Every structure is written in C-alpha cells, then in structure tokens.
Amino acid sequence: MTNTTTPNRVRTRFAPSPTGFIHLGNLRSALYPWAFARSMQGDFVLRIEDTDQERSSLEAVEVIIEGMSWLGLDVDEGPIYQMQRIDRYRQVINEMLESGLAYYCYMSEEELDAMREKQMAQKQKPRYDGTWRPEPGKTLPPVPTDIRPVIRFKNPIEGSVIWKDAVKGVIEISNQELDDLVIARPDGTPTYNFCVVIDDMDMNITHVIRGDDHVNNTPRQINIMQALGGTLPVYAHLPTVLNELGEKMSKRNGAMSVRDFQKAGYMPEAILNYLARLGWSHGDAEIFTKEQFIEWFDLDSLGKSPAQFSPEKLIWLNHHYIAHTESAELAKRVKPFAILEGIEFAEGAECTTKVGPDFVKVVDLLKGRANTLVEIAQGAKMFYATPPTHQLDGEEFVKNVPPAVKPYIGDLVALIKATDGTKEQIAAAMKEVLAKHGIKMPVLAMPVRYLMFATTQTPAIDAVLSIMGSTEVEKRLGVLG
C-alpha cells in the first residue's frame, strides 16, 4: 500500500483477532489507542488480524465493529483485513529470502517435537536449534522431498533487544532467548508476528498501545522491523484486566461480552467511563464525559498494575448516567427494552405508546432508582398492563383492601376529581384524607396501590397517580363503589 500520511502525525491502531467474542478487556485495548489518537489529532486504524482462518469468523468481526460503534470509537481507516494483504506479505517474504534475512526450514513436526523434548529433559528452554539456518561455511542437510518447508526469519544471534515501553519502562531481552521465528507456514500463509510488522510499517503506525500479553512478541517484531529498515513505533503495554476473582478476564473465566452488556441495559457512556478508569486516571476524577477523557488522556497517566473489574462500580456508574440523562433521550433508549416487555408503541411515533400514560413521564419517574435500562422497562410495564380485575370478596383483596378503607378511598377520589391531577395536588389531597380520618400514609397508600395495579410495590404513589391521570385513577379506585 502507498503511505500518504503526514510525517510525525500520530497514528494508532486496534488490531483484534476475530476468533471469539469481545469483552471489556478487549475493548479497553481499543479505547486507549483511540483516545490517544483523538487527543493528539491523529488517526485511529482498525485492523482485523484474520490470518488464523480456521478460527476467524465474520460474525466475530461484526461483533467487534458493533461494540466499537456502540461506544462511539470511530475509526479513520478500516476495517483493514490481513487476508486481503496476502500478496503484500508474500512480496516481502520473497525479498527477505533473496536478501538472506529469511530461509526455508524443512524440519518436520516430529523432529521439532523430539528436539523440544530433549531440550526440556536437559532443563533447557525449548527453542529451534537453527538446523536449517544458513551460515558461511555451514553445510545444510539434504533437502527432503516429503516435507513442505516453513520460512523462518534469521534472528540476530548477538546482543539484545532494548526498548523504552511507555508503561513498563526500559525492557531488555537477549537475542539468545529468541529463536528463528516462523514467518510463513508450510501452506505459505504468513504468521501473526510477521504480518503485524509489515502492517505497522505500511500503515505508518507511530504508537502501539496493546495488552501486556504481547510483551513477549515485541522483541521479535522489533528485530524484524529493524531488519527491514522500519522506524520503531512507541510501545505501550497495558497491564492485564482481571475479573472480580482476580483472574485474567476471558470468556473461559466468565467474562460478559459487549453484546451481553448491551442486552442487560447498560449505557455506553457508563461503559466507556468505566473502561477509561481500568488502568488510567486523571487526578481523583471518577465521572467524566468522553470529551473530557480525550482532553485529559496521555500515556504518562497509564497505570502499571493490573486493573480489577468491579461489577458494583460499573452498576454505580450506570445508575449515575441513567439518572442524569434527559428523560426524553432516555425514553428513546429504553423503548427497545420496553417493547420486549410487551409495551406497544404507536407506529411511526418516537416514544408514544398505543395506550396508557406518557412514556417519557413514566421513564422520568423510574430513572432515579434504576440501575439499568432493563429495570426501567420492567418498572414501566405495570403502567401499560391491562387494568386488574378484582374479586372484591376474595381473601387476597380483603387482605390488601380491608372494608374500613372504603370511605378513605371515596374521599380521595372526590378530592382528586376536583384538581388538575398534578403530583403536588394529589399529595395535598392524600394528606387531607389522612388528617380527616386520623390515619397514617400506609393505611391509605397500600390499598390505593393494590386497587390500581394489584401490587403493593410502586414508586411514590402521588407521582404514580398523577401520571396515570384522573380518569384512569377514578376508574380503578371506583371499583369499591
């Protein structure tokens, strides 16, 4: 590919392998390079590392793109698929073979296994021994006719790989610890560590911000890049994200996928805010907007210790964002969950239900105590359910609406009919009934709730009655006659 980027312009990338679902730990590896690119007015590239064709899937790619879009992590380039760049990789491999930077290795799998077993038995680190590595004056074994060779990179034998990691500081790895990396499989497919280098060079990536599970790959990638005359990017290896049990976050350890959080009714703003704090900080700031995050973000503030996921902290943040979102906007977000709960909306209308009270008002009432959008939808369900039919002499009815409350209810209905039905007026009417009959609020409120919804658990009853409207209140409370 032709590089047309501006010299010295910051360019970062997120390069996931589409081999499984994407969880919060994966998304943090997208969030930080995205934030750094945005803070530096640079470019953010999405690259799909799909050379593992057996495990890669289009569905996994869709989930990655969907999750990033949900969080608002916009990309400047991509998605770029490695499998569409195979010709480029093969071109470089051929050039490396011609220049002596790479060579064919005909060692069979059985020979490799036997070599590794022998090394481990001698308490040595298992590594390729260089049997097929060409050296001046060295005679190579006869080329077998029944082995399809791999291609290996001639890693330097002397010296060390040294780089200053933006998170971990100076890291040094002896070249004697590194064997000659396979850069192409027997079928000619290039390997991950090789493709990454060519991609980062061709795409002029200036900063590689990724999880510290890649630290062991970095010296190999640096050696290949330097052999090809590339300019090394700045590396920043992020500490691991642990689950609530202190284990590395993964599907195997019960991590929720991004789609799971969406389906559970989490706000993307809360997820982004929470992810930002999983390994980065700005003073004591716990809650901040996306714009503030971008303004404040820098690599110097990245943490050096593993970050542990806390479901309670995320719920707390989600509640905050729900409670502070404007009710009309929140109602739009709750609507898909409300439909799943059986609430019907008028066709073509934004948040107008076919029957029942104003949906925005219902959401406004419920949002102050809700932790998720699902909770709001579930709480809203009773406002749109078919009015309960009561067996007036049934045991359950008499228990919740004893005969003594009939005059209290009658007085309340009469007072409400004489008002405009505002929350304040209904609250005043209820106080008047309490004073007149010398009773406490539960004696009146519990029967009212049961008559209205066949339950004794509702939000503040004056607000509920106001939202339902005087006509519906009179109809439901009037069953006592």
From TrEMBL:
Reactions the enzyme catalyzes = tRNA(Glu) + L-glutamate + ATP = L-glutamyl-tRNA(Glu) + AMP + diphosphate
Domain Glutamyl/glutaminyl-tRNA synthetase class Ib catalytic, which positions?
10-316
Signal sequence region: none
Q: Where is this motif: 'KMSKS' region?
A: 248-252
Coiled-coil zones? none
What are the EC numbers?
A: 6.1.1.17
Transmembrane residue ranges:
none
Q: Where is the composition biased (Basic and acidic residues)?
A: 124-136
Q: Can you tell me which family this protein belongs to?
A: Belongs to the class-I aminoacyl-tRNA synthetase family. Glutamate--tRNA ligase type 1 subfamily.
**Which protein are we looking at?**
Glutamate--tRNA ligase
Q: Which organism is it from?
A: Polynucleobacter kasalickyi
